[in-house]
Amino acid sequence: MRKRRNYDLQEYRENHDRWLVSYADFITLLFAFFVVMYAISSVNENKYRVLSGSLVNAFQRNVSEVKQPAATIPSPVETDLELDPEPEEATDPARERADETPDLDEQEEKERFIRQKKMRVMANDIMHVLAPLVQDGRVSVTQSVQGIAIEINASVLFSPGHAQLAENSIQTLRAVAAVVQGHEHEIQVEGHTDNIPIHTLHFPSNWELSTARASSVVRLFIGNGVNPQRLTAMGYGENRQVASNETPEGRARNRRVTIMIMSKEQGQVTEIPVDFVHERNETR
């Protein structure tokens, strides 16, 4: 009878240690929690697949061990954390060019702003040196997308029917040349006349007179340091009037020299391909 009682007592003591199974489960779950935290810290699809497989195996093993009594503490599940390195993303040239485009656009916009600012400063300087003539109404200075236009009445520069600069006009043109000398803009000097015909030994028509007057201004600019490659002399005769030739005032207004300082914001010239010309002819 005593032997039977000792056996029951021994069995009771052995069963008393079954709490170790729950403790082992707790340790395993805690380990799995830290594995999850580690995996979340580095986002990678391959890591998630490996982690998912490891967790499934771990929990399946724990469930089977809980169903079967164990005399020893189960060891934590070892998880292989040596994962494949993240694949390097292939560089897309088109995407790189797209990323660079805003920088290029921003740079072009900055350069355009600087050019426009320089044009405004140059226009103000020209207005300053020509202020007396502007107030007198014989000179006008305007600025547009094409550039800066300085319109000088012919009476300020020339005697009637002549293309030689008057002495009192040379100093005025020298002041204008000093302003434009340090810039790189192209300059077109245009000569204009009224519709009264002229026929002299030097000027058979208004074409020759207007061209000769523009050339006189160009020569003075060259003599005062303006690069000749920037200059162009053009004569329009009476063909581009700005006022009516029916009145003396209108004819006086049409006799003028326009100094056009060209802006660099002009549209780019696009060459038409030869194939387009052939296609155009075939459709007719």
What key attributes describe this structure?
284 residues, alpha+beta, 60s Ribosomal Protein L30, Chain: A, 11% strand
User: Could you tell me the radius of gyration in angstroms?
Assistant: 46 Å
Ends: how far apart? 125 Å
Strand arrangement across the biggest beta sheet? 1-2-5-3-4
CATH superfamily of the largest domain: OmpA-like domain
* Low-pLDDT windows of residues: 69-83
Please summarize what this structure is.
The chain has helices spanning 2-15, 19-41, 45-67, 93-129, 131-136, 154-157, 167-180, 206-223, 248-254, 274-283, and strands at 139-143, 147-153, 187-192, 231-237, 256-262. It is α+β, with helices and mostly antiparallel strands.
Task: Report what the structure shows.
The protein is of the alpha+beta class. The chain folds into 2 domains: 2-67; 105-262, 60s Ribosomal Protein L30, Chain: A (2-Layer Sandwich). It contains 10 helices and 5 strands, in the order H-H-H-H-H-E-E-H-H-E-H-E-H-E-H. Strands 1-2-5-3-4 form a 5-stranded mixed β-sheet. Strand 1 and strand 2 (147-153) form a beta hairpin. Helix 2 (19-41) packs antiparallel against helix 3 and helix 4 packs antiparallel against helix 7 (167-180). It starts with a helix and ends with a helix. The relative contact order is 0.09.
Fold blueprint:
Elements: H1 2-15, H2 19-41, H3 45-67, H4 93-129, H5 131-136, E1 139-143, E2 147-153, H6 154-157, H7 167-180, E3 187-192, H8 206-223, E4 231-237, H9 248-254, E5 256-262, H10 274-283
Parallel strand pairs: 3-4
Antiparallel strand pairs: 1-2, 2-5, 3-5
Helix pairs in contact: 2-3, 4-7
